[in-house]
Amino acid sequence: MEDAFEARRFRTAAAHYLAGRPDYAPRLIRRVVELCGVRREHRVMDLGCGPGLLAVAFAPFVREVVGVDPEPEMLRVAAARGAPANVGWIEGGSYDLGPRFGRFFLVVMGRSFHWMDRADTLRRMDAMIEPGGAVVLFDDTHPNVPDNAWRRPWREVIERYAGGDPARGRSQSPEWMRHEAFLLDSAFAELEELSVIERRRVAVETLIDRVLSTSTTSEARLGARAHDLVREIRDLMAGIAPEGSVTEVIATSALIARRPG
Questions:
Q1: Which of the residues in the chain have pLDDT under 50?
Q2: Does any domain span residue 4?
Q3: How many structural domains compose the chain?
């Protein structure tokens, strides 16, 4: 069994999440909708929704989206952003999943599955997801291309502040088991992966928010050292991007897991 989510890890990160985290490509969302056969009458759960990036993205395609997150501040930010009328928010986590939530066609997660007891979560979702439905895990990566050269020194600064976080150490250790292993041992063992690669222009201030939006380098974890981290990032980027922005190439991806057959 994996460790439970550490309460309030994202309390201060919530304010920076919407401004800093990269959006999932709209083209990727549309492809997931098409491939999974999502229809207007369906319900979608965004589990570990944060401020609702996926919840809002799926709202135009379905009857209802329910965003679920254990951090009250994330839900406050989500509600304040002005989501569509068919999106609602519930405070809770994977251990709360059960019949009271009703049935869903899709359960989507963006960078949140690693915080959960993954085997237990998949068992719970098997009882909640309709026949023909799916679990979809969203992520983003940065390919090793010249446009992303600035990321190496940027990451080096971050690494000096992120060290010593036990949760981060677990997920980066050689023993860490990938999500695919849990999915292949679950009811949702038929896997398919999609990726959309885009070139985007990103402001340095957005990158500052991105750093502060992660639990490892959040103000809640670093305390006064967060100000030192921000200062170092700004000094670094002043030399790399004196005009105040950089180009990044980003791949947003979706791992679709369905019941075989």
A1: 1-5
A2: no
A3: 1
